[in-house]
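Support request, please re-run this one:
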Amino acid sequence: MRQKHSSIIWKLFLLAILSIGLYQCKKPEDQSSPVMFGTPQPLEIPKGFPKTNIPADNPQTVEGVELGRHLFYDKKLSADLSISCASCHEQFRAFSDVGQMSTGVNGKIGRRHAMVLFNLAFQKEFFWDGRAKSLEEQSLHPIKDPVEMDNTLTVVISRLEADSDYPSMFKAAFGDTKINEERIGKAIAQFERTMISANSEFDRVKRISGNIDAPYIEDPNTPGSKNKGFEFFNDLNGGDCLHCHSIQADGAYMGGGFGTDLQFINNGLKMDYTGDLGRMEATDSLSDWGKFKVPSVRNVEWSFPYMHDGSIPNLDSLIGFYNFGGFDNGNTSSFMKFAPSHMGNRNFTKQEILDLKEFLKTLTDYEFLENPKFSDPFEK
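Re-run finished. Output below.
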């Protein structure tokens, strides 16, 4: 009995020694914050804008932004070296596409119009259907999409590694010359977050005055009234645009479109969405059938053609569509004044249309559209 007892004690002793050894060999958990390389470049947030949505492991730096800018404009990202991100997102069109549908490598035509790119730092879901939950994720999709750049990250990385400039740029941005998928996504995301549009005529009049109802200075030579157009935009019995394109929230200036903007709505553009189910493709929810992300009305004067399929060619046609009110397709938003209940027309007067158009033009931010910080770094 005594021998058995001693054996048990001996086994427990060996087990304790082994446990101590394993504990000492265990790698301690890294609870430190991400290491930042490069020069910090925090975003300048305009007055009245919401909080940014920037992940902690991808802080903004001068070097990261510049690297992202080069990648955004570099055709090395496409399989046949024919297109870059900027090919479908042109600055003078608020970084949207000039064509109805975006064209990929070898002339492949996509099924959607490239969305505008600005004020992305304040958003949480990307693409028309919201399938990407971060800019880091979004920036990599076009590279691998067979109807866009149709490339692999392996090929892209090998091209960047062989380039005379990129290894040193990656080192400046991330601490060493390693080039990988994660860093490519992070750099492009940093650049895209700097694309802040906040200096339209609307901003200058409303924000600087501190009064959302501050009047515009009218031009007697224009056929429409900016002030009346703004009132018509917000009039529930007029344009009733504010439900989906809010200019203010809770009485506070919100940067010209951060209220219900960026949500997903079926606006009755079509009766049938068989070829493109919209957000339903990302969520598998029947309630999301035909819903697409609502873009901001900022820079709407220059971001034509409009809608997810680029089917509305110009600003006059856009106003005409909302005057029509959209189709009742079974999932059309109640915010739309679709045709059956309004006999196919909301009966905007000619003057109301002119006024609304003049107001929408005040949302154009020419400083943003012409800012050299967002331009092609390869054009010198």
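The two ends are 91 Å apart (CA to CA). The chain has a mean pLDDT of 87.
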